[in-house]
Amino acid sequence: MTSQNIKEFKEKVEKLYDDETSDFRKKFDAAIRGLTPPTVYPDSDVYKDWRGANGKTLAEFFVEWYDWAWKQPLSDGLKYIRKFSWISYENAAGLAFVTSDSGRDVLADFTQLQGRQMDSEDSEKLVQQWIDELGPKRMADFKKGDWSTLNKFFIRELTDTARPIDYPDDPSVVTAPTDCVINMVVDNLAPDTPLPIKAAVTMSVSRLLNGSQYAENFIGGTAVSCILMPDTYHRYHAPVGGKVVESNEDVHGVYYGIRDFPDLLNKGNVGYGYDYSLFEDFRRGYAIIKTPYLDHEGKPDGEGYVALVPVGLNSIGSVKFQEKFRRIDEKSAPVEVKKGEEIGYFQYGGSLNILLFEAGRFPALQLLMGQRIGVLQEVAHTERHFERYVRPLPGRVTPAS
């Protein structure tokens, strides 16, 4: 049953744990026993020592997390995600707790509760915090809209001139689906059984695409991750033009369960060398686009497929497609899509898009001279961002006895 408020949710967590025979208590206690000593600053505000925790500890943490939104800078939300993630850090029992049975259901309940919080009228007072933190230069990219709730602001729209689409009429040019950090993930996609590629980076394309009939087209192909941070633009767009031949915005999955979340935020090199196979089980959607290919002379060279897979990471319960793209299957007519056309959006939190390409069609990221590759920031801003999101945490914590 869905909790109606944080008080009811807290009572639910405590009641589940107080039942000594419950799956919830058994798995949470096993998770605590299985804790792996992480690498942390002794005084880091993104570390929580969960040793000795019980149901009351967990319930009070959720209350603190929920209340944080009204008391602290919104972009610090990742701090609580990181604190919680130490339960499953390199911890099989911790992963079992957050991804199965009542532990998974409790986290889904909390995520929905957070979503309603960000949809509430009270959340409007938080919007100015975001505007102030983003600053006038970044805010100039966005249209002024109905920002009467935090989630409405979170999915703010770009101005018509903020992100011009490169080569809109050239199907051979792939564009970024959103504002993101991009990494090559896998260059030899596996069918059903994940195969180790490049230092244990794996990907089962069939599982990622929820058993789609088009999954086999990407076997041997390439996957590219496009990671969004909480304070960036959260609508995503078609990386190529063509026809959407299959889509599903509602592939159910878990909300938490990144076993080594600090490694995803690796030294500012977000997502580099990461094992993306775990995202096959996260809440996600996908859209498969049939797109024309050109040969080296720019002449038509048949057609192929590109897939866009938006994945909701921690705290994300919403993967929303525009109506025309929500559910397309073999019974539906393909839907035309232009390069750069909006496919959908994520609501509150950080998230990820994975792009899939057929074998030999996208061997590397390529840029032309003069195209943007990044932004130099003033030192103070860089240090704040690095500390908040991606800074590695040296030192050892003594293992629990």
Brief summary:
The protein is an alpha+beta fold and 401 residues long. The chain has helices at 6-18, 23-33, 55-68, 77-85, 92-99, 101-119, 124-139, 150-154, 205-208, 261-264, 379-390; strands spanning 181-186, 222-228, 235-237, 242-251, 284-294, 300-312, 319-321, 327-328, 335-337, 342-346, 351-357. 29% of the residues lie in helices and 17% in strands.
Care to count the β-strands?
Answer: 11
Radius of gyration: 21 Å
**Overall shape:** globular
Helix-strand makeup class: alpha+beta
Give the DSSP E fraction (strand runs of 2 or more residues): 15-25%
CA(first)-CA(last) distance: 37 Å
Helix content range: 25-40%
Unreliable runs: 195-201, 379-401
The overall average pLDDT, rounded, is 81
Brief descriptors of the model:
single chain, 401 residues, alpha+beta, 8-stranded antiparallel β-sheet, 3-stranded antiparallel β-sheet, globular, disordered C terminus
SSE layout and pairing:
Blueprint: H1 6-18, H2 23-33, H3 55-68, H4 77-85, H5 92-99, H6 101-119, H7 124-139, H8 150-154, E1 181-186, H9 205-208, E2 222-228, E3 235-237, E4 242-251, H10 261-264, E5 284-294, E6 300-312, E7 319-321, E8 327-328, E9 335-337, E10 342-346, E11 351-357, H11 379-390
Antiparallel strand pairs: 1-2, 2-11, 3-10, 4-5, 4-8, 4-9, 5-6, 6-11, 7-10
